[in-house]
Amino acid sequence: MLRDRTRQRSNSYLEAVHAPPPPGGGLNPNVDAVSTTSSVTPSMSSRSLAVSGLAPANHAGAALWDGSSPTISASPSIMITEGKSESDLFNAPARESSVSVSSPHSIVPTDVSGLAAAAAAADEGQELEQRTAGLAVKEVEEEDKEDVDVEEEGKEYPYHPLNKFAFDKGYLGHLTDTQAAALDTMKTRVAADSLDLSPWLCRPAETEEHFLLRFLRARQFNVNKAWEMMMTDITWRTEYGTLALREKTMAEVVQCDVSLIHHHLPIWQSGFDLQGRPVVYKRFGRCEISTLKQHTAIDNLVRFHVWCTERQLQLLGSQSAKLGHNIETMLFVIDAAGWTVRLATQDAFRYLKGIADMDSAHYPERLGGVVIVNAPWALDMAWRVVQVWLDARTKAKVHILRRGANEALRQLIDVSQIPADYGGDAPALPDPPTESL
């Protein structure tokens, strides 16, 4: 019974994605087989971003590969990939959709103005009847509110049609029998333990099934490992106080002069990509962790990372409600201009490992992609160390560009959403950044 209900719900997500896949280039259903090497490629065309799953299928704001024979352009793009030949990857089918990138959803309650007017028009002498009519209006309004709540609670949020999740195995709508059985087992355990997952869901789009599937995918659908990971995460969230942390100020979190953080660890949330995902910008060229350590503990810097991520999760919820799609991942653009080996200190690696461990253990499947732009050759050394801490799925989402950042970002983000710093029409990133992400 549980498995039937899971399949039935899963199939409803399929129906929300309108068109079947036509032949041609675009999204790559085999993206999970792609991994990232430790070297940066200086010259691969930007169509590779589409192959990686970072860039969407055909869209008015993105000039992507059109399905013709691939050619290597002079402009740089992403890191060399392993696991499949270029010809195999570029021949992956595309997905097109007529669904708008921006389709806000609203619910209009039943109009009860007629009842209110009738009550207002009652004979002034019949006070009891007027009170009764007034109560009736109030009762109808309350029922309408309940109807809205029920409708919103039962509303389904399919993945954005430009997102590969709408077609990939392991996601609602594309579960194999084994994956569906694993999900059913997790749901049964949740019910048997009377476990309340609602405080940890990214409302309104993330359901219990979405939540459980994130942990299952992170552990290759091994139920016992996924359950252990989830329970460890819930315990950590309760003890760490992630919900309360969201409400703290930046100064309370970092416990030092916030201008130091703005200078050495600048971070901005600016605009959204073509899939509706929030875009977060970071600049690592002046990331002097050893200097910051003189003013605050590295644990506080990791806590600052958690604070930022928790606030970004709130943005995922509001963006899902606005678009009517489940937006569950974020895109990061890291500007490495100015980064030198001098910054690759023991303290810096301790900080990077701390946030990598935090993301891996407590934010599974939240990373949509990382594009590192303006990468110097010296970054190769740091990347060889950092990639050891990352699993294969995460490494496949990291793309390093030496040049051509502006062109590459336009494959992912509409020009109206790209800051002027990177050739877009949006305002330049304020430096220093504001406290509110």
Task: Output the keywords.
single chain; 437 residues; alpha/beta; two-stranded antiparallel ribbon; 17 helices
Put the structure in a nutshell.
This protein has 437 residues and is α/β, with parallel strands linked by helices. The chain has helices at 2-16, 48-52, 86-90, 113-120, 127-154, 177-192, 208-218, 223-240, 242-245, 250-254, 258-264, 289-293, 298-323, 346-362, 379-386, 392-395, 405-410; strands spanning 35-36, 81-82, 267-272, 278-283, 330-335, 367-373, 398-400.
Polypeptide structure, described:
The chain has 437 residues and is α/β, with parallel strands linked by helices. The chain is built from 17 helices and 7 strands. The strands form 2 sheets. A 5-stranded mixed sheet has the order 3-4-5-6-7, with helices on one face. It has a two-stranded antiparallel sheet with strand order 1-2. The longest helix has 28 residues, at 127-154. The protein is globular and about 50 Å long.
Topology of helices and strands:
Elements: H1 2-16, E1 35-36, H2 48-52, E2 81-82, H3 86-90, H4 113-120, H5 127-154, H6 177-192, H7 208-218, H8 223-240, H9 242-245, H10 250-254, H11 258-264, E3 267-272, E4 278-283, H12 289-293, H13 298-323, E5 330-335, H14 346-362, E6 367-373, H15 379-386, H16 392-395, E7 398-400, H17 405-410
Parallel strand pairs: 4-5, 5-6, 6-7
Antiparallel strand pairs: 1-2, 3-4
Q: What is the overall pLDDT average?
A: 74
Tell me the fraction of residues in β-strands, as a range: 5-15%
Give helix % range.
Answer: 40-55%
The helix tally amounts to 17
